[in-house]
Amino acid sequence: MEIPSKYNALSVEKKWYDYWMQHNYFHSTPDEREPYTIVIPPPNVTGVLHMGHMLNNTIQDVLIRRARLLGKNACWVPGTDHASIATEAKVVAKLKSEGIDKNDLTREEFLKHAWEWKEEYGGVILEQLKKLGCSCDWDRTKFTMDDDMSEAVIKVFVDLYNKGMIYRGYRMVNWDPEAKTTLSDEEVEYVEKQGKLYYVNYKIEGSDDTLTIATTRPETILGDTAICINPEDPRHQNLRGKKAIVPICNRVIPIIEDDYVDVEFGTGCLKVTPAHDENDKVLGEKHQLEVIDIFNEDATLNSYGLHYEGQDRFVVRKGIVKELEELGHINKIEDYNNRVGISERTKAIIEPRLSDQWFLKMKDLAQPALDSVLKTGDVKLFPKKFENTYRHWMENIRDWNISRQLFWGQQIPAYYFGDGKEDFVVAETIEDALKMAQERSGNESLKVSDLKQDADVLDTWFSSWLWPMSVFDGIRHPENDEINYYYPTNDLVTGPDILFFWVARMIIAGYEYKGKRPFENVYLTGLVRDKQRRKMSKQLGNSPDALKLIEAYGADGVRVGLLLSSAAGNDLMFDEALCQQGKQFANKIWNAFRLVKGWNIDENIEQPNSSKIAIDWFESKFQQTIAEIEDHFSKYRLSDALMATYKLIWDDFASWLLEIVKPAYQQPIDRTTYEDVIRLFENNLKILHPFMPFLTEEIWQFIEERSPEDALIVSAWPAATDINKELIAEFEFAAEVISGIRNIRKQKNIAFKDAIDFSIVNNEGVKSTFDAVISKMGNLESYNYVNEAVEGALTFRVKSNEYFIPMAGSIDIEAEIKKLTEELNYTEGFLRSVQKKLSNERFVNNAPEQVVASEKKKEADALAKIETIKASLESLN
Questions:
Q1: What confidence score (pLDDT) does residue 576 get?
Q2: Cα(464)–Cα(483) distance, rounded to whole angstroms?
Q3: Distance between CA 347 and CA 444 in Å, rounded?
């Protein structure tokens, strides 16, 4: 096959992905091998590929491809999450664009539209992951609302209800007025917002006196049912036992006393609105206050809003402030920074709201999951710093509000058969529910049509917390062959922002339903940010189009660009230049391959000693790097593992080994060296394959014709052999010598084709192992060991070894002496300035340690340079 002069990533990527799919390399079934299992963090079915997905899935693909090469039965399960709130919002918006109001549809009609939307758009992100090279077992693709997955969710709900862990309660919840559903505490983000603090006067019943309250939400005044003072507050003793009049609505409310009120904050008078504040609700229950809910589900005001009925809460805020000012009730208004809860999904400002909801008791359930991370170490977090976050969340866990007021999702399996709040049964099927309802009611004539299923659906996370088990059908059939083989899984790769949402809950579910951890290691990636450290988002317009990046730099280039700067747990400052670096690396490897394949082989040539020793050195260097890479992988330092691979291939293989062994211009190479280089090239491809799968497979298949069984993707990770550390150290010394020769050639404009004599005073007692390599790389005419300095020669040092290149007749001695003298004077002046700084005790004692160390290095470098210049001057005089 003719090798193209340029690497064409786009054509190569499609070709090899199709080839891998055609030969079913990604598919896994249980066998006698050790399993290696990853479940994908299921992206929202509404989603498209963004930079966070790119990073997360690249890391997973690196781990899964490496596991294949290590001979494990690698299984990466893909899938998507039904994302109740986000998907319902998308469908509602689509219907609205078609002139259809969701409220005019039955649940069945809406779900028909939702499923149509899912079928049309739901697979986009998984198809995009293929462009990135993700080697998921696509035959196993799951969706959290597949029939079997939904059955598992319902089964778990019923089980937990029967265990007394799920209950229905009237509680203050987080209400998203845009999605018109409740949210769990974890689905609420808190942001600082510039607002106002309004000081409002309330009249005291039966007098002209007033009291003043401070509020950031004057619209809630219409829901006030008490004023609270601290009984120990001397300022308000005159208010005890009296009543106040709520402005605008003129409702008479009691003035109550409770030490909950902070006498140091505000006016010391607290308005109490039990329907719209968690703390006010507690006070209301304690003092048996009336509860007045002034909001509709979309946060417009209801009939309690009087003439503001039907208006949005923020419109009402402005109107009420204006009306209070006109009525003389505003005392003053101040600027105020307020911490406001917003919906993680819709970004709407949350309203606290009293509502009947379903809750899951979490404290007892959470204990095994807490112990597994913090006591036994059964589950390990990388980086370890996230253990403190995990501890805080788990030790302060609250009951989980698992019901949502939506259509899209698993409908709660509670069936009502009477008029009372408690007239319901919980069952997996409506047939089972009917039997239970007949027994509970004592009415055997009840029919299915008499039952009314709870209208709410379950929180999306209540399905995804079962993901590592449900993808293997481990809930419905807990002892099936697949769950017993693949569970627990090995690694989970996800973002720290869902450490509690998803990771902790999966651990909880794993111990509850399998008595085992769901995974051993959790690799928490950082967030992808732009160069200004801003989180990437559509709103800021700073998130590049993932597919366009792949078009521009190739999937391998983008993967390398992301991974080179993505240390676990640390945010990644994304810069397209990193992808360009990845693309350049691909081109470097391609050109190195073309160089090697361009060599002609002469069967009659013996292997030169320089080539033999260079190959021996690279064998050891390769093994040393493999050990380093293994250590990085064990600590989930994938960025470091890639960098070690990068340096090995770019520096040691392409820049050193190939330069050492390559034949002279238009000359052939011996077969032994050629075959050794190909073998080493293949080993390089194996360790690079997890990071750059397309390029490596392309070169692998170009090296020789291979059967499908011999494709790189299913080849074997290089075997470990002995490392000759002495040889590696000797090469590093030799490399410095070669650099010294090259520097002199460059400084004196001596062409490489011109051979030069070379002498060495071997004070270090260096072995002659690499003399042949130095001779070839320096184009040396002679290589002489001498006992003393060579007069009339240019010189340099490596440690205490002195090297001489006789230059008599080839340079202007006087001009060289003048040049070296000027350089010596400059360096000695520089040394004096550095030593002056180091002799200043104030500087040494007060400057940062790294600054002092830098100055000391400058001093050492200057001293060495002066010694070398003086030696060169001596040899010329």
A1: 85
A2: 17
A3: 49
The CATH superfamily assigned to 754-876 is: Valyl-tRNA synthetase, C-terminal domain (1.10.287.380)
pLDDT digits (tens, 9 = 90+) for 204-249: 999 989 999 999 999 999 999 999 999 988 889 999 999 999 999 9
Q: Exposed, middle or buried, 204 (CB in 10 Å: 0-12/13-18/19+)?
A: middle
CATH level 3 topology of 181-351: Isoleucyl-tRNA Synthetase; domain 2 (3.90.740)
- Spell out the domain ranges in the chain: 9-148+465-506, 181-351, 563-723, 754-876
Q: Residue 765: exposed, middle, or buried by beta-carbon count in 10 A (0-12, 13-18, 19+)?
A: exposed
Model confidence, pTM: 0.84
* Among candidate residues 73, 126, 116, 79, the one with its CA nearest the CA of residue 94: 116
- Rounded distance, CA 65 to CA 717, Å? 10
- What count of other Cβ atoms lies within 10 Å of the Cβ of residue 323? 17
Give tens-digit pLDDT for 248-278.
999 999 999 998 998 887 789 999 999 999 8
8-state DSSP, 405: S
Classified as helix, coil or strand, 666 is: coil
Count of CB atoms within 10 A of residue 152's CB?
25
Residue with tokens 């006109």: 326
Domains 9-148+465-506 and 181-351 share a fold: no
How many alpha carbons lie under 13 Å from residue 599 in its C-beta half-sphere? 25
Topology given in CATH for the domain delimited by 563-723:
Isoleucyl-tRNA Synthetase; Domain 1 (1.10.730)
Span 524-536, pLDDT tens digits = 998 887 777 777 6
Residue-level length of the chain:
877
pLDDT at 202 over 90: yes
**737 in Cβ contact with 802 (< 8 Å):** no
pLDDT score of 540 more than 90: no
Q: Which residues contact 266 (CB under 8 A, 6 or more apart)?
A: 213, 214
Q: What is the Cα Rg of the chain in Å?
A: 37
Q: Do 454 and 427 meet the contact criterion of CB atoms below 8 Å apart?
A: no
| Angle (nearest 5°) at CA 81 between 113 and 408 | 35
Both tokens of 230, joined, read 């601290």
Per DSSP bridges, beta strands 73-77 and 35-39 are: parallel
More confident residue, 612 or 172: 612
| Structure token digits, residue 85 | 């709130």
Mean pLDDT of the chain: 92
Q: Which two tokens stand for residue 389?
A: 């976050």
Using CA of residue 389, residue 395, residue 398, residue 401, what is the dihedral sign? positive
Phi and psi of 494, rounded to 5°?
-155, 180
Q: Where are the alpha helices (DSSP H) in 601-657?
A: 609-634, 638-647
List the structure tokens of 421. 């709040």
CATH superfamily ID and name for 9-148+465-506: HUPs (3.40.50.620)
**Cα–Cα distance between 811 and 257 in angstroms, integer?**
101
Most confident residue range from 177-181, 190-194, 345-349, 386-390: 386-390
